[in-house]
Design a protein that fits this description.
ScpA, Segregation and condensation protein A, 2 domains, mainly alpha, two-stranded antiparallel ribbon, three-stranded antiparallel sheet, about 280 residues, Arc Repressor Mutant, subunit A
């Protein structure tokens, strides 16, 4: 029987809170059976009544209080569960083991070991109750704290910060201004008198002129402006050099930077030049 009780002490755990009722006399503790869920709750309540640390509690005194509690309950004809009676029997056995002289070591644990196991179980139950009390004392959802509503969107503000020198800032400003400034360069095409036209014109006119004539005499009359006239004069000069090379015209200039004269090559000079070439 005691081995079964010992097994109950090792594996059965009752962690529900105990119900107590204090009489007007603070030194007298009145316990109601409906407030407990097991004999271990009764033991813990009795241990608290001693107002000492569980590690320093007197097991004998606790056993006597529990046995007195069970006896008082039976005297008042209160129905007692079998667990309480089993615990009472086991505690009576433990008390006898503690009071009697120590026997030689056998298979069963000693009274000190049994008392230590009971003490450890009371400590565990006390720790569980303290944890439960701390949990119940925390804020509760819907009573002390409330869930947040729909989350609001986050607004992001971006602020740029630049670390540049004055020169870099001015260069960036200049580049930006240049990108936004539309610059269009138009180069007008100047009127040019082609060399081929000058050779063709000069070849046709030189046969009608037998005296020395200035080069400007052979310029066309429909020139647009001074730029066009300069282009025609340059082309005529190049054409006269080409005709002189071919032996069709004579060129001369009386002074430096003076006007250039042009005439058709004379026949005698042309024949002599042809003979010399042969």
């Amino acid at each position: 029987m005691f081995k079964q009780v010992l097994g109950f002490m090792e594996f059965e755990e009752d962690i529900s809170p105990a119900g107590t009722h204090h009489s007007p006399n603070p030194d007298h503790l009145v316990l109601h059976m409906d407030g407990f869920e097991g004999p271990l709750d009764v033991l813990l309540t009795l241990a608290r009544a001693q107002k000492v640390d569980l590690t320093q509690i007197s097991i004998l005194e606790l056993v006597e209080q529990y046995l007195a509690f069970v006896a008082e309950a039976r005297k008042l004809k209160i129905e007692i569960a079998a667990d309480y009676l089993v615990m009472a029997a086991w505690l009576a056995y433990l008390k006898s083991r503690l009071l009697l002289p120590k026997e030689e070591a056998g298979d069963e644990p000693s009274a000190e070991e049994l008392a230590l196991r009971l003490q450890l179980r009371l400590q565990r139950l006390e720790a569980m109750r303290e944890c439960g009390a701390r949990l119940m004392a925390r804020d509760r959802m819907g009573r002390d704290v409330f869930a947040r509503g729909n989350p609001e969107g986050l607004k992001l503000l971006k602020r740029g910060q630049y670390d540049v020198t004055l020169y870099e800032l001015l260069r960036a400003y200049s580049d930006n201004r240049q990108r936004h400034t539309i610059t269009e360069i138009r180069i007008e095409r100047r009127p040019v008198y082609a060399l081929e036209e000058a050779i063709e014109r000069l070849s046709g006119l030189i046969g009608e002129v037998f005296t020395w004539s200035t080069l400007s005499t052979f310029l066309p009359a429909n020139l647009k402006d001074e730029q066009h006239r300069k282009s025609a004069l340059a082309s005529m000069f190049a054409a006269s050099l080409e005709l002189a090379r071919q032996g069709q015209a004579d060129l001369r200039q009386m002074e430096t930077f003076g006007p250039i004269y042009l005439r058709q090559k004379q026949q005698e000079e042309a024949g002599e030049q042809g003979a010399n070439d042969n």
